[in-house]
Amino acid sequence: TQEGVVDLIIPRGGEGLKKALSEVARVPVIYAASGNCHVYVDASADLEMARRIIFNAKTQRPGVCNAAETLLVHADVAAEFLPGVLRDLRDAGVELRGDARSRSAAGNGVADQIVDATEEDWATEYLALILAVKVVDSAEEAIDHVNTYGSGHSEAIVTDSESVARAWVEGIDAACVYV
Fold first, then answer.
1. pLDDT averaged over 10-residue windows placed end to end, the chain, 179 residues
2. Sign of the C-alpha dihedral, residues 131, 149, 25, 27?
3. Please, what is the angle between helix 139-149 and helix 162-171, to 10°?
4. pTM for the full model?
5. How many DSSP H helices and E strands does the chain contain?
């Protein structure tokens, strides 16, 4: 409220801080973007590369706005990819929330530790060691999911397909789109 003293506030914090400031600030405020960010593992992906990417994207700095909050995996590679990566994430302390298909593909020892994902999970920026996991049937379904639930911050695809990469880049509405 220090008009004439404070020229601008650029707060760093969660949605609660933004809401509180918007109700009382009388000086200009630039709000940092929220980041409900996704990594999509396509059917053509190098699965070892995808494993390293999602592990890093979730665990390196989970409290930042460009950390991965949702992992989308193509159905054709889910049974091969999910057991190992979900075990790695769980062992690193990540709480997993998944749809029925991801729990089914997770395998013994991990599936029973995956909490049922809710509609709210798909739209949540956790800023914590929590990851939502969903199996999709196509890149188009992944793009639709991201454009429905994403915050427009940062979205990534792991693919070896140039045409799928192009569809991702052209179809995703976000400030940063990674291939």
1. 88 76 88 85 98 98 92 98 98 98 94 96 96 98 97 95 98 95
2. positive
3. 20
4. 0.86
5. 7, 7
